[in-house]
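Cross-posting from the modeling subforum.

Setting up a comparison between two proteins and wanted a second pair of eyes on the formatting. Protein 1 (sequence, then structure tokens):
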Amino acid sequence: MLTTFLNLWGCIPEITKDCTDMTNASSTYLGILAGAIIGAIVSWWIYNRQKKTSDMQDRILKRIKDLDENHDEILKKIDMFDQKHESSLDSIQDLNSKIDEILKKFNPK
């Protein structure tokens, strides 16, 4: 079937037995066909590589987003800890000043 299809374009000695020369038309069509096949393979390869790269970028962006959310949660916890620490420090300082006042009352010098 392939030889019948190619015989429509002209004589191709590489495919048919009783042929001595390939015509210009069949040479052109065969070149176009080979170019289309090679172009399709290269296009598929490029598409496949770009898809893999895009998928990897999506995974990295998702990971960055997760890390950013985790970072925000950690910052909130640190802020809460800092507020509690400040409150505790203020209470300790207040208690220290009260102790100093009490000590001054019992030990006037």
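Protein 2 (same layout):
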Amino acid sequence: MRFLYKRPKMDLVSEELITVMQVMSSDVFIYLDLFVFSLIFTLLLSPALASVSHMILFLVVCYCLLASIYYFIVSRMLEGH
């Protein structure tokens, strides 16, 4: 069975991995991930929050906090190199 499966060339695999890494480390993808994490965190804390308006406010504050941490620490650190 091994002879039926042809391995791709290393150059093609390398190019594909570079493309995946560029997409995964793009700013848009990271900010989308931060929003999803904020949403999950808000939903997990929903029993402790009083109303829907508090949940929305908490979501916005949590997202802004995470986005500012990413922007001021990680993004600025990567610009320096």
